[in-house]
Specification:
Helix content is 47%, strand content 12%. The protein contains 12 helices and 7 strands. The protein has helices at 27-46, 51-58, 62-69, 77-86, 97-101, 107-118, 137-146, 153-166, 184-188, 194-208, 258-274, 278-290; strands at 2-3, 9-10, 119-126, 177-183, 213-218, 232-237, 242-246.
Amino acid sequence: MSVVGDGTERGDAGVDEPGWEVDPDDEPGAAVVAAVGRQIKAWREAAGMRAAEFGTAMGYSEDLIYKVEGGRRIPRPEFMDGADVVLGAAGKLAAMKTDIAEVRYPKKIRELAKLEAAAVELSAYGSHNIHGLLQTEEYARALFGMRRPAYSQDEVERLVAARVARQSVFSRSPAPELSFVQEEVTLRRHLGGRMVWRRQLERLLEVSELRHVEIQVMPTSRDEHAGMGGEMQVLKFKDGSAVGRSEGDFGSRPVSDPKYLRIIELRCGIIRAQALNPGESRAFIEQVLGET
């Protein structure tokens, strides 16, 4: 078995293993991939090349070429660069990488990323693991790798890339106000192993130094806790609108109705008041890190 240019394994029979398939329920994404596939096919035919010849020149199987051209496989950036050179597209195919960049990620994650990118304020409480925006790449990979039923390795990498891409929110200008409350257990659980865990704690300390970010810890020793229902998050936008989600409430779906948002915001506010303040939280994280 060999590995081709995009990291896809290929057996002796030249059949590429699954990965980066198009989600049939993601209609907008499927439409983009189909359009890109048609363009690749048009350039190939204009160049007078059969699919098998094109595949050989690219280092891929003929089967993969048909999948990409048929809109059944999301081409990776390396594929688009290679196709541009082989077909003499003078940058036109390579330029389409931007069209498929977001489609690489699941629809649900793309929608969340758009909300986070537009938010001027974000408040979140995490009870099971570190919030996605705060995760290191290694920690995220460990989390997705633990999922059952198991994701394929390709799916894991796709989800990790999407999660890391969302973290561009920290470098936005103007910067949004970001507030996180993490349950103490999320700091003490060695997900991914001791070194991954240590790097994750170091990442929390690094992010907590940003002026527009507050990280608080909810100690396990608290006698009262407004977040026993599970994780929650509120995103606010510059037009005054907001979206919230509370695990176990309102079908666990995002809500924008003011009467539901008031409940989630109330809980988030009480949780922040019950947690250690940012300074105490930083000292707590440093203490946990020092215990390793």
